[in-house]
Request: fold
Amino acid sequence: MSDEVVLESQPNWLGLTGSRVLVAGAGGIGSACAKAFVDAGAKVALVDLDPERLEVASKELGPDALTITADLSTGSGAREAVARVEVALDGIDVLVHAVGINLRKPVLDFTDDEWTRIQKINLDSAFYLAQAAGRSMIERRFGRIILLSSVSGLLAHPDHAPYAASKGAINQMMRVMAREWAPYGVTVNAIAPGYIETDLTQDYLSKGDNRAKLEKMVPAGRLGTTWELTGPALFLASRHASFITGHVLYVDGGRTLV
Ligand SMILES: NC(=O)c1ccc[n+]([C@@H]2O[C@H](COP(=O)([O-])OP(=O)(O)OC[C@H]3O[C@@H](n4cnc5c(N)ncnc54)[C@H](O)[C@@H]3O)[C@@H](O)[C@H]2O)c1
Reply:
């Protein structure tokens, strides 16, 4: 049975109709997730630093989705964005954090600024957003937080030191939040994708035999699509995942098995 048929016959099977969802990051993965939540009947706000990406995404999402431009790597930027979304949607039930950058170089070549920039965008933004959204979720005794980690948070990919550090840190931060907030009905989980084709990976994949080499490392024999992350995000946000917290869900075609 196709996904469309299931959705048609049981329109609210995920229990997300009317859910208020903040998706941070309007890139490949964030936009795909935002669209999936809209299709599931949720009210969606999409936040990103780049107004052009927001404009492209908003055409896909339709007129009801809210878009906000904000620098989420600062505490004030993230808190202000959360506050604006809470007013506009009358609260936040689900936060998806899909913000991130990567820079590939050997450890010895990174500058102080490069290291700091990657931590601020990848890790600090996740902390500030989850802290701000989590605060009001705790008050309302309900919330679902989903952070985009990576297989790099577990494996030791060369040339990935700051990125890998930020993703390993997201996993640990997520576990502590999950433990602290479980008594209040707030679940906190991470999705850790393998290689997915988006702006984050496009340049690297288009060079030399990078794509073929990466595909060989994946037992499924291919890279993933943004669509393949939407199901896991919807599931973790749904009523079916109410007792799941503190997990890193690898969505990687088996990459972390080898
Ligand atoms: N694409 C992959 O292969 C892959 C694999 C594993 C994990 N991830 C993770 O998934 C998440 C989304 O990645 P993607 O592939 O969609 O990347 P992407 O480059 O398509 O999107 C990332 C988005 O983050 C936004 N952003 C950057 N700095 C920001 C800031 N300071 N404030 C607000 N927004 C900012 C960018 O404008 C961009 O729209 C990231 O956390 C990434 O690390 C991606």
